[in-house]
Amino acid sequence: MTTRRAKLLEATCRVIARRGVRGLRVEDVAAEAGVSKTLIYYHFRDRGGLVTSALEYVNDRAESYAGIAEGDDTPVRDLLLALLAAEFQDDTTVRENSAVWGEVRAAATFEEGLRRTLASLTERWLVDVAELIADGQDDGSICASVDSRAAAVRLTSLVEGLSGRWLAGLLTTAEARAHVATALERELARNTQS
User: Fold this and answer.
1) Which of 46, 66, 71, 183 is a Cys-bridge partner for 86, taking CB atoms 3.0 to 4.6 Å apart?
2) Burial bucket for residue 170 (CB in 10 Å: 0-12, 13-18, 19+)
3) Closest by CA position to 48, among listed 12, 7, 77
4) Structural domains in the chain, sorted by start
5) pLDDT tens for each residue of 67-107
């Protein structure tokens, strides 16, 4: 990604985090980035393209701070906890990402054009978590009877729900992480009759 495009997306994320998607105006992003509206239209075609690109951008940023070490001897169960808990950090970028995700999820209720990208990126996250659960079943750190896909849906939904409370100051970072750890323990101990 070009540096200019990345700077425009960073500015877009800041504006979305402050005003929401429904309040996003291209003029505000241009002012935030210190560029002309024309440049934004050149890179993103329209407001919808800008929002979609911003969501993809925050998803890529999240993958960078939530990445797990390959080839590590750490049990996969612990890596999964680290991945989910990474969504709660006292870090400006993490908070901004969480705010953008929440705003886009809410806006997708009203803006059908956002749903496809949101669904695609959510599916990518679900697949990553389900694959980690399956890897944990292979290494013995996760119960073999856990339905990896269903567990991934519940765990990522929990993280999304906790995120809104965390951003609103209703939960501390430590509390959000503790809830994720407790839910993970309960979810991964399920047997097929639960």
Assistant:
1) 66
2) exposed
3) 12
4) 3-188 (1.10.357.10)
5) 665 556 788 889 999 999 999 999 999 999 999 999 999 98
